[in-house]
Amino acid sequence: MVPDQDVLSISSLWSQLTQCAAQEKALHLADLFEADEQRFERFNIDACGLLADFSKQRMSDEARDLLVALAEERQLRHWLDALFDGAEVNCTEGRAAKHWCLREEAGHAPQVHEQLDAMERMVERILKGHWRGVLGDAITDVVNVGVGGSDLGPLMAAFALQCSLPPEGQARPRIHFASSMDGSQVSQVLQELNPRTTLFLVSSKSFTTVDTLHNAKTARQWLARGLGLDYASESLLRCHFIGISANPRRMAEWGIMPANQLQFWDWVGGRYSLWSAIGLPIALTVGMDGFREMLGGAHAMDLHCRSMPWQKNLPVMLALVDVWNINFLKIPARAVLPYDGRLKHLPAYLEQLEMESNGKSVSRAGEPLDYDTCPVIWGEVGPNAQHAFFQLLHQGTQPIACEFLMTARRYTEDMHSDAAVELEGQHALANANCLAQSRLLALGERALDPKVALPAYKRYRGNQPSTTLVLDELSPGTLGALLAMYEHKVFVQAVIWGINPFDQWGVEMGKLIATDMLAVLTDPDNAEGLDASSQALARHIARKQKS
Ligand code: F6P
User: Could you tell me which Pfam families the record lists for this protein (predicted)?
Assistant: First the structure.
């Protein structure tokens, strides 16, 4: 049993941090850099193929020491031990959170490795062209049908790694994703595909999510029509559907054949599930060796997180920096800005990981909190964001924290071709822009020539804090380390705030109300007790549908 924390007795450390922030508010990042040439040396961590530069955060040594002390006071060591011991850290659902166990080495978690082996057999059959459609064709297209954690993680990682070479002698199928419940994605994907050569992965931890079940049903009807088979046809199900879930009973009831079922467990949260068979699209992209390399990178980060002192600990420092920005500098938002287009889907993945985990306002004990938790997180590929919302970062009225991501090595494998030389030039251009933006945001106009007087509309206030993360290169291993770092960062923040990051009750309520609304849409005049706005909107839609 994990003891709870007294979140409302705000500690003296909390007051000291508040005072420290008040004193340091006037400090400008340009002053911090001018006063201390060693600032980078003291504010960076280099581990597991990642370098994190925190020196452009508006944080003094004193603030950092106080934050580290706060982590101690909040019993971070105890909570990390509880997480890694498999204690019931998810108190509202009475469950452990053992996503880290999915990347343990063989011998530690036999059931995990059994499923990995089953996954490997399927991956082999598909990549070698041995998995056949009902009419004997090899599979050319795989569609992942899932939503939330059953979509965002595999989509992000498969997209990030798709430039790596497919495993030798194997033909990688095209991978598609369909998540949205309105059918817009599934209908578009199906238009382009041939039912004879298409395999669907129905990915859902619960196997009850209506979004996924409706998309899967549409796909099944499309297959039945296209192949001239019955909706209930066993051969259709055997040749064209794989199911991935923690609910084998529901999978079987839907029609997934026992041999086509991959399982994971209740103790893996949906947004932490890409390490399980939910990661099948990733394995189909990089092969099983690549997938295992990603697990290995994540495992290295688990070990780093468990063993390093807080000041040298990547996830812990990332979490403490965020706590400083949110609770003490009162910065309400964070932009995630990858300068490597392969990380295009990272912002959306992090939006779920962080906001669904830590978007909470009561403590573990159910008491309301009187301090902020997760900020608004959003993002975009950095170079594109420069032409979209960077104006607000540079000259808007709000303080915003930024997280820049870049890769040190890219396009290095084939530097002999002309195209590779040009692309390497583009890589350098992107990295130069990344460094330029974080410098300008930090120093403001003090990064420019001081002799040039600027009119008010051209002035740069600066002092927008940022962290820069540099990956040695984007490989399955470094990606695994990066994602595990974010997972642990979310947990560390939850420990500081005294909240449960592993449930999502706010989302559950919306699902229930949507079921009632379906009835209202069918008969808007018979909706007793409904608010005036919802009823009027339902009536309006009904009128428009009839006209
Ligand atoms: O949005 C709520 C949620 O439960 C997420 O946490 C989860 O990733 C998503 O729905 C999908 O759930 P499932 O994998 O059970 O279909």
Answer: PGI
Alpha-carbon distances of 436 from 387, 429, 444, rounded to whole Å: 14, 10, 11
Within 8 A by CB and 6+ apart from 85, the residues are none
Residues with CB under 6 A from ligand 1: 147-150, 204-206, 209, 212, 270-271, 356, 504, 507
Reduced to 3 states (helix: H, G, I; strand: E, B; else coil), residue 94 is coil
Q: How far apart are CA 65 and CA 130, in angstroms?
A: 58
Residue nearest to atom 16 of ligand 1 (CA): 204
Q: Which value does ipTM take for this structure?
A: 0.98
- The residue written with tokens 């990642």 in the block is 50
3-state secondary structure 27-63: CCHHHHHHHCCCHHHHCEEEECCEEEECCCCCCCHHH
- What pLDDT sits at residue 451? 78
Lowest mean pLDDT among 96-110, 354-368, 514-528: 514-528
How many residues comprise the chain?
547
Distances (CA, A) of 79 to 86, 160, 271, 354, 446: 11, 32, 20, 18, 43
| pTM for the model | 0.96
pLDDT at 468: 98
